[in-house]
Structures are given as structure tokens and as C-alpha cells.
Amino acid sequence: MIREKIIKGYIAGKDVLDIGGVGQTKDYNLWQEIRPYAKSLTGIDIESSQDKDIVVGNMESYSFNKKFDVVVAGDVLEHVDNQGLFLDNIRRHLKSDGVLILTTPNAKWPTVFMPTNITHTLWHDRATIKNILLKHGFEVASFRYYYGNKRYYNIFARLLVLRQAMLVICKIKEK
Predict the structure, then answer these.
(1) Which single residue of 72, 97, 164, 173 could bond 148 by disulfide (Cβ 3.0 to 4.6 Å)?
(2) CATH homologous superfamily of 2-114+121-172
(3) Residue 132 vs residues 70, 119, 174: alpha-carbon distances, Å
(4) Number of H helices, E strands in the chain
(5) Tens digit of pLDDT at every position of the chain (175 positions)
(6) How far apart are the first and last CA of the chain?
(7) C-beta atoms surrounding 56 within 10 Å
């Protein structure tokens, strides 16, 4: 999958924090995909896990008392109650040269006309995601649309889902 391939390139040999990896399904488990590539992988989720490396907590306020090279928030932002607190706390946990990797659904993709996931609090498009990141101390280093989080799409399905999701690579904004 495109998303995982890109993320693996950023996390190889790094200390990584993954946010929200517990509730993922077998076909959509970013935590398991990236684990072998990181030097160390710590997770946080509001749901409990049997995995000793995943703590129960809310990233809007949780403190790890350490900084990470990379923070990955794969399809989490749209579920967060206070996205500003969430982003501010991520910035506090990133090393000065660290990278935040966000993926989130694209609000301007046709699914907005379908019933939404009841756990979604807010959706973004390209402009709003860049704006909220800037307001909370990040600059966008790379932005791309991608097909979403299914393992495989045939060529016809790819045309339909081309901009279904967004992948944003961010760095801490220089003052």
C-alpha cells in the first residue's frame, strides 16, 4: 500500500510514536506494518491493548516525558475531540528535527454524501489540514492524495478512489 511504503521510509531506524493503533482491523493495521522498521515503537490509544508497548491514554494531554524522531497519526485526527490540543501535544513530543506523519480522509471526496463514521468529529480537505497544522506550529513538507487504506484496488476502483485520503508529512515550523 502506498501509505505504508511512504511511512516506512521515514521511520526506518527511528524512535517512533504511533497514535491510535489498537482499534485497527487485520486488513488495516498500521501498527503491525511499521513495527519491524522502527528502532523503537511506542503506541498510545484510548483503547486498551495486550501489547506492552501501547499505553492507554489520550494524546490531547498524555505526557511520555520523552521526545520522538517521528510521530505517526494514521487516520486518527478525524476522531479527536480537540484537534488543537492534540497537535500541540504532538509538537511537544517531537524532537526539533522530528517528523509528524498524518493520514486522514479527504472531506472533498464523494463519501461526504454518505453516512459518516459516528466517531468522526471533524473532516479536513487540503486547505483546512494545512491551516490547522500551521496554526499549531507545523509546516507541511509533503502532501499527497492516495487511494485509501484497502490492500488492493483494481484499476477501475483506483480511478474512483484516487483522492479518497490525504497523507501529510510535517516538520516543526521554524520560528
Answers:
(1) 164
(2) Vaccinia Virus protein VP39 (3.40.50.150)
(3) 19, 20, 16
(4) 5, 7
(5) 678 889 999 999 999 999 987 766 555 678 888 999 999 999 999 988 888 999 999 999 999 999 999 999 988 998 899 999 999 999 999 999 999 999 888 877 666 566 677 777 777 888 999 999 999 999 999 999 876 666 556 666 555 556 678 899 999 998 7
(6) 35
(7) 13
